[in-house]
Design brief:
heterotrimer; A: mainly alpha; ABC transporter involved in vitamin B12 uptake, BtuC; about 0% strand; B: mainly alpha; two-stranded antiparallel sheet; about 70% helix
Chain lengths: ~325, ~350, ~350
């Protein structure tokens, strides 16, 4: 395999990975604060249509991405008000958000099917990405760099800042955090909004970068993969990055094997039905979750308050 | 002046019943306003979605057939929810139920007698229960979160479906289209009213809520489920086994979803194709909540949700809104019902703020 | 606020009452109603868009005698049954169900309404009041294959398909055979993604095909996504179902356009005249059902001439890409020299020709 080939394959994998990485990172922060939001698919679709629509009106993809973040965050606020203010069941509310986002994005998107919008230019001078090796570094959409930059930033935020510490405390023991005087509800609002904004940008990656167009349900279930990813990664940012690329690699491997990329050298890979490939992320997630739950020593655990409503005793 | 929540001494029965009704009405109202705002004839859309299926008699059979799987799945789920076990993988259990029934049907062959329907439906129940047994095992053995495991398994089930109907179970005369062969006539569920599509599954869906009601209110098991859900500590004192409750909740939920899948397959679709998972398992969660986790509530709520499905299709033909729009209304109903939960246990009081800020 | 709410509720209730009246009273219209069940949104710039153009052709040709109704986004599951029945209940005399996945549903409803005529697209099960119709898309694929075989520098062509169903198999084979006529060494790399519509997967599959050396990729899935990828990479491809040049002005060499209008008008006319009968129609270029979109300026004149010759050959019946000798992937002779595959053989084909590289 030539270096050019490997580079091009990596570029494809980056494209497959970035949206689930963005949405997964957002959900990770939400879950770290103790909130399980199953509405990722809905928020991604809301972001996808918001980003596309704003770009269609303003002819500016940067404003489009802002719109996507706003679209995702706004739809997440629906969820936030219900679970935080009214203590509604997080599982049911999150599912409702997914159904809601799918429906609303289809309805809004009706007017945008078949439209064409301007795309991101490269943020680096074109000459830099000309050489294949440098293309590996400079040849992506701005959102790819954004996603990659957000990983260490989020890790640093969670680990080393006061605000991150509070967020984790709220997710691990909401009552103690409350008694020390932190606003559990406020922290969770922020974490949910961040999750929504990141899911929205992840959705926009579909409608603005990979295939710049709008089509109903165009995220095709990637929101659920993003949810699986957070669990697979054991709620840790570093592992989220690795896990996202691993999932992206699996998706690429399926297509590569199907296109007879291995010739006849690896016949067993060719014979794997596509359904096995598609099921793999979910099966592996269940396995990872089982491992995390059964042993304390894998360096990961679910936030203790995940999915539980906060009911201050006063 | 501000609002204050005050805990009620006992849950309000009035609110328990009034809030679901209010949720449906509020959803209709907001639907009119929002749809008008985005340039779609809102009143027409809302009328078509909520009222046409009730007013137009030729739509009744569609509502009944749609309601049946929703009611059956919701019955099973509400048992789990009462015990605080969150099975959100009913969609997958529904698919596995249909596949198990289809497997028995295929094994029996095209000349099988109509009695084969009985093992097919039993296989459906077992198939759904078996799929739900995975999260139950993981939960009882290693304390694996059943919300996440049952959700993940749903997406695995879609791939099992795709593999079987596109591979070993594909219709040999189907020109490679991914679907099983259509069921022979004698292996389809009897039709209750000639000339309609209302099959035996609808009758089952009408009877089961009363069976569940009886069991839940009269038996020790029903008591156990309620106690485990509302007061886990007391339950442990009373000698109720938590693990046993987890198994029961998930197996009943899975079994009911599997039953619904088998009935939908033998009664309505008559073949399993990639379009089989149509979201009933997820919508049934809305049904269970809208029905307040009560068997009779599930029965009524199942019909309400079925109306929105059928009405969504009416609106598709009349105001040309996408099919997924019905989902907006279903989600809104759930939002309102979840939001109003708090009114059952709390009373809203308007209090004058201290100080003179008002 | 309260008055407004109450008023809209009252209006809603009033309208509901009117609606129930409309439902029972016969419409005082004597136009014949014709219904359409569509798979996607009519704005999908592909499969459904083309069918809707056909519906509009009926309106244009017979608008004084018939009225058309349609439902879009109809899933290929049991939920299609009430929608088809709805159209029949609304008085449609002829109903087109425009996707393969409505086969059993169409037959089910047709049994309930023996006086209503049904037309099922791409299916193979008929009844007294159910006709089937299809299009020889593969004739268009032969034109695309000719262009691709001549224009490809690498001789490696990509084909992105959905499922191994006859329509796709025929398309792949016609494309490969036509390309090999221009370049005997041409190979076609095939990826079947197990979906008709999954833009991100279609995009990644296209990139993978490009990376494996394909410089022209044709698609047999429904989104214009792959063309957008080819546009970004400066490579070439073709539109599927409709002219998709708007999505990829440079990459879009031409497209196979599905033109259903002539057939729909003819069948609607038969209803008006009372001459409708259940038939199995499989039209192609000759009848104007398969049309090649305008060529991109990037297609050289000699290639245009070759492509036009294929089109002309199909129109006068002198050309058929499925003329032997044809070998399968393993080199077995499937069609002897000089023999032409029959329509029946084509309709149930499940093997790929030599030169098609696929995983299974």
């Amino acid at each position: 395999m030539s270096p050019e080939f490997i580079i091009a394959a990596i570029v494809t994998i980056v494209g497959l990975t970035t949206p689930i990485l963005l949405a997964g990172l957002g959900e990770l922060v939400t879950e770290k604060s103790g909130v399980l939001n199953l509405g990722v698919e809905g928020m991604m679709l809301m972001g996808a249509i918001a980003g596309f629509a704003i770009t269609a009106f303003t002819f500016n993809p940067w404003l489009g991405v802002l719109g996507a973040a706003a679209g995702g965050a706004l739809s997440s606020m629906l969820f936030a008000v219900l679970v935080l203010q009214l203590n509604s069941n997080q599982v049911a509310t999150g599912l409702a958000l997914s159904i809601f986002g799918t429906g609303l994005s289809s309805l809004i998107g009706n007017a945008f099917t078949g439209r064409i919008v301007p795309q991101f230019g490269s943020i680096f001078p074109a000459a830099l990405a000309k050489d294949p090796i440098w293309k590996l570094v400079f040849g992506y959409s701005p959102l790819v760099y954004f996603a990659l930059a957000m990983i260490p930033l989020t890790a640093w935020f969670l680990k080393s800042t006061r605000a991150g510490l509070i967020l984790r405390a709220v997710g691990e023991n909401d009552h103690s955090a409350h008694s020390i005087g932190y606003s559990v509800t406020g922290v969770r609002y922020a974490a949910i909004a961040f999750g929504g904004a990141m899911a929205g940008i992840g959705g926009a990656y579909f409608s603005m970068v990979i295939t710049p167009m709008w089509a109903e349900k165009m995220t095709a279930g990637r929101g659920w993969i993003a949810l699986a990813l957070v669990v697979f990664a054991g709620w840790r940012t570093g592992r989220l990055l690795a896990g996202a690329y691993f999932f992206g690699f699996l998706m690429w491997l399926e297509l590569f094997a199907k296109a007879n990329g291995f010739g006849n050298s690896l016949p067993f890979l060719q014979d794997i039905p596509s359904q096995v490939w598609a099921a793999m992320p979910y099966v592996m997630t269940i396995a990872a979750l089982t491992l995390i739950s059964s042993r304390g020593n894998v360096g990961a655990s679910a936030p203790a308050c995940l999915g539980k409503p906060f009911l201050p005793s006063t | 002046m501000r609002l204050k929540l005050e805990k009620r001494p006992a849950p309000s029965t009035f609110m328990l019943i009034a809030t679901p009704i209010a949720s449906v009405l509020l959803t209709m109202l907001i639907g009119v306003i929002v749809f008008d705002a985005i340039g779609i004839a809102g009143e027409r859309a809302v009328i078509d979605i909520f009222l046409t299926p009730i007013l137009a008699s030729y739509k009744w059979q569609d509502v009944a057939v749609k309601a049946a799987p929703l009611i059956i799945i919701a019955l099973g789920l509400s048992i789990g929810n009462r015990a605080q076990i969150w099975n959100i993988g009913a969609e997958g259990q529904y698919v596995l139920g249909a596949l198990a029934a289809a497997g028995v049907g295929i094994a029996a062959g095209p000349d099988a007698s109509s009695l084969t329907l009985i093992p097919m439906i039993l296989a459906g129940i077992l198939g759904g229960a078996a799929w739900a047994a995975i999260p139950a095992f993981l939960k009882t053995r290693w304390d694996v979160n059943e919300i996440l495991s049952s959700l993940m398994l749903t997406y695995v089930s879609f791939q099992v479906l795709g593999y079987l109907v596109g591979g070993p179970w594909q219709d040999p005369n189907g020109r490679n289209f991914p679907a099983t062969a259509p069921l022979p006539e004698q292996l389809t569920l009897p039709i209750l009213f000639q000339g309609t599509t209302v099959h035996l599954g609808v009758a089952i869906a009408l009877i089961l809520p009363f069976v569940f009601w009886l069991v839940m209110s009269r038996s020790v098991f029903g008591f156990q489920i309620r106690v485990v859900g509302s007061a886990p500590h007391a339950a442990r004192h009373g000698g109720f086994d938590a693990k046993q409750t987890i198994w029961a909740a998930l197996l009943i939920g899975g079994g009911m979803a599997g039953l619904a899948g088998a009935l939908e397959f033998t009664g309505s679709l008559k073949a399993v194709n990639l379009g089989f998972p149509s979201g009933y398992g997820f919508t049934a969660i809305i049904v269970a909540f809208l029905g307040r986790l009560h068997p009779i509530g599930c029965l009524i709520a199942g019909f309400v949700l079925a109306v929105t499905y059928v009405g969504g299709q009416v609106a598709q033909t009349t105001v040309h809104i996408p099919n997924a729009t019905a989902g907006i209304f279903q989600a809104m109903m759930l939002f309102f019902i979840l939001a109003s939960d708090i009114l059952i246990r709390y009373r809203v009081r308007i209090v004058k703020a201290k100080g003179a800020h008002a | 606020m309260t008055t407004l709410n109450r008023r809209s509720l009252m209006k809603a209730a009033g309208a509901a009452a009117t609606l129930s009246l409309v439902g029972t009273a016969a419409r005082a219209e004597d136009k014949i109603k014709i219904g359409f069940i569509f798979l996607g949104p009519i704005g999908d710039y592909g499969w459904t868009w083309a069918h809707n153009k056909g519906r509009e052709a009926v309106d244009a040709a017979l608008g004084d005698k018939v009225e058309t109704l349609y439902v879009e986004n109809v899933a290929e599951d049991a939920s299609a049954i009430p929608l088809i029945r709805d159209l029949a209940n609304q008085g449609c005399k002829l109903i087109f169900t425009c996707s393969y996945g409505y086969m059993e549903q169409t037959l089910t409803v047709a049994k309930e309404f023996p006086d209503v005529k049904f037309e099922h697209c791409t299916g193979f099960k008929r009844a007294d009041n159910v006709a089937t119709y299809n299009s020889k898309f593969h004739e268009g694929r032969a034109v695309l294959g000719t262009i691709a075989g001549k224009m490809s520098k690498s001789g490696t062509l990509g084909y992105l398909g959905s499922y191994k169903v006859p329509e796709v198999v025929l398309g792949v084979n016609a494309f490969a055979l036509a390309a090999q006529k221009q370049n005997p060494a041409a190979t076609v790399k095939l990826v079947l993604i197990d979906s008709w519509f999954d833009p991100p997967k279609e995009a990644a599959a296209t990139e993978t095909l490009i990376n494996l050396g394909c410089d022209i990729v044709t698609t047999h899935t429904d989104s214009p996504g792959p063309l957008q990828i080819l546009e970004q990479k400066g490579l070439y491809g073709f539109g599927q179902g409709a002219d998709m040049s708007a999505f990829a002005p440079t990459a879009h060499l031409t497209a196979i356009e599905d033109i259903w209008g002539p057939y729909y008008v003819q069948r609607a006319q038969a209803i008006v005249d009372g001459t409708w009968s259940s038939t199995d129609t499989w039209d192609g270029m000759k009848e104007g059902t398969v049309v090649i979109a305008p060529y991109n300026a990037a297609v050289p004149a000699d290639v245009v001439a070759l492509a036009d010759a294929v089109q002309a050959g199909y129109k006068d019946g002198s050309y058929d890409i499925f003329t032997g000798p044809i070998f399968d992937q393993d080199g077995n002779e499937k069609v002897k020299a000089g023999e032409i595959m029959t329509l029946e053989q084509l309709a149930s084909i499940d093997w790929f020709v030599k030169g098609v590289e696929s995983a299974s």
